[in-house]
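Morning. Coffee machine broken again, so started the prediction first thing and wrote up yesterday's gels while waiting. Chain of 801 residues, entered below exactly as on the submission form.
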Amino acid sequence: MLLFFGLFAGSASAQMVGEVSGTLLDQSTRQPLPFANVLLVRLPDSTLVGNTQTADNGTFALPNVPLGRYVVRAVALGYQPARRVVALSLATPAIRLGEWPVVPMVVQLDGVVVQGEKAVLVEDLDKKVINVDKDLNSAGGTAADVLQKVPSVAVDANGQVSLRGNADVTLYLDGKPAPSSLRLDQLPASRLETIEVITNPGARYSAQGTGGIINLVQKKQRPDGWNGEALATVGTRDKYSASLNLSRRVGKFNVFGSVDGLSNRFQGSSALQQTATAEGRTTSLDQAGRTARHQTNKALRLGAEYAWHPEHTLTLTTEFYKNDLRHANDFTTRLTRGTDSTVTLQNQYPETDDLYTLRFAGNYRRTWAAHPGRELTAGAVYILDGGTVTTAQRVLDGPADYPQQARRQVLDVTIHMPSAQLDYVHPLDDKRRWGAGLKTDVMLTPGTAEYGVQPVPGAEYIRQEASSYRYHYRQVIPQAYGTYQQQAGRWDYQAGLRAEFTGLQARVLPTGSTSQRIFNLFPSATVARRLPRHEQRLQLSYSRRLNRPNFLQIVALPIYADARNYVVGNPALRPEYVHVTELGHQVAWKNTTLNTTLFGRFANQAIQSLRTVDTLATRLSGQPDFITRTSYQNLGRTTSYGLELSLTHPLTAWWKLVANGSFYRNQVADYTGSGTRANFTGTAYLLNTFSPTKTLAVQLSGNYRAPLVVPQGRLLAVYGVDVALRQRLFHDRAALTLRVSDLFDTRRQYTRLAAANLTTDLRTKYETRVGYLGFTWFLGTNKPASSIGNQPQGDSGGFGG
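Came back before lunch.
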């Protein structure tokens, strides 16, 4: 009888199975660790029973495990291996490890102790993540400075970012739509924790942005107690910035906030040569002069996070931005019409921007400990942009018969942008899961454009009724999506479909109105294969996306850059649609990581800006001059395809190299619409990080953007070298950073355009060689960046909608 019961118990134990689950976190930041390996080893013979990878939110589950004693091992690049001993029995067949923090790796290098940490640039197959604190060349800089480090990204002198030659890049702030007034060159790098660049977003992301998505993730400290940092930076020729980031976590509450201030003065120069033919006569313009720009930014951010239960978290944030810009342009202008004598003018083009942004956001997150991977998030955001933009044109000196009156345009802008979204992820088992979401974006922008003339210096501006307008723009975009993911052995599959409806109405009084009603479906799919050696991964992805024209591109509202050039929208403009495909390969061996991506982008109804001579306005001016008009058109098809490479490799114990670049063929429709223009182009970036002592880090970097064709011409090459060093002080409680941007003063913007009856050659040199000295004091558990970063890791930064 005893033998019978013993055999029965043994048989039952062999047939019963259990499960081990948990969530891997970074011990210092409390952020999830995706793509980490979790192994289950049986005791005492160390037989491997099962393995899996953590999901985007750090969760993992090992189901169908026979009862017994095991060691659970977690292995993540750059972190110390972690292990837990578990025992599955009839009484406890399921072990929930909950949150499992792992610590960064500590490496001993010839007497120099280096704390393992995330690299400056993290390369994954579906996105690139820049860890801002690890980039010494961002100290005292802006988000635009940081983005110069990303493969295929270019940022021009106005803060406009383009990816693989495409300027239609969608900006997000903490995973939600960014204020329309947000400029990358106005956001201090000190406020940012990471910047995510997603080149081929899936169905979970908004379909807007044919060039991809850039998500700016702001700092939100999570360790217990007081944490934060204070930073002050001074730059050559009157450049100052300061910031304070603080957080306080006690129990279920986490309160965080930041305050930032920036005041920068920049000098520059530009030269413009244009030749235009109007009314049968040719006029040449030769203009050269100096520019001065004074930019002041103020920002305040407050937030609170309340986790009243491990499965429930509520986050509320409010932000205020104040951006002021004073831009003065003083030029000498020479006009020659036909065989007439040259007219010489002294022009001044002042511009004043007084803008503000209010942003309120709330987010609720619900998880289920009993069902790892199941998650519900709900969020709402309200953004209010407002302010005025004033541009003027004055003739300070010229012939007596040339008009000396000043002209001024004042744009009064108010933009309301509420949005709400709901996302849900439901795992069917440890290999399959589905997700769905709803979102609505609304944009309302009433405003005015007042145009006035000042007859004599010092007099009041007289409103010009025929050139003054009121406008109203309304856009509503309801959206829904569904996704399905499955893991089968070493294969991963993901498919999704997103539906978006666009309804807009634009009115310009007194000229007229336009409206659009467009429904679209956007499929996406990804297939990935994990290869057995060197932690390799191969991934093929596809998505359909669109570029909706913004309201300034649609509203027929003339906006004057100066007396000779204006921009106006096109009410007949329609969205641009694009198909994006990528084939990526990632391999890691020892301390080296190599990413290779083949990509293709194929657009229809491509939106292009065109500059032409406005013959009517030229005739009405009655002067030896000409007026140019810039507007937008849908011009046929554009294509770009090529290769990206990124390599991270430590050459020695004290020298680490990051190199990335792209080479691609860029093809755009000719401005006439009858053909195409194309060239081979690309970008290159090289970052050297040196650790000569245990407390000193040095970074030397250089970037290059090759010439790029546009419908009416080409943009010439841009390149430069930056250097920075950081000395850690007072037992890692402080750091001193010295950097010089554009060390050899080589970054210049050259543009050459040609159209019917118009040629343009524009050369601009902004003040790019600047020295910065910054001091940072770290509070709580915060520490300065160490001298050597670890291997790239996947980051947890995904966002919905």
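The helical segments are 2-15, 143-147, 551-554, 615-621. Going to sketch it on the whiteboard this afternoon.
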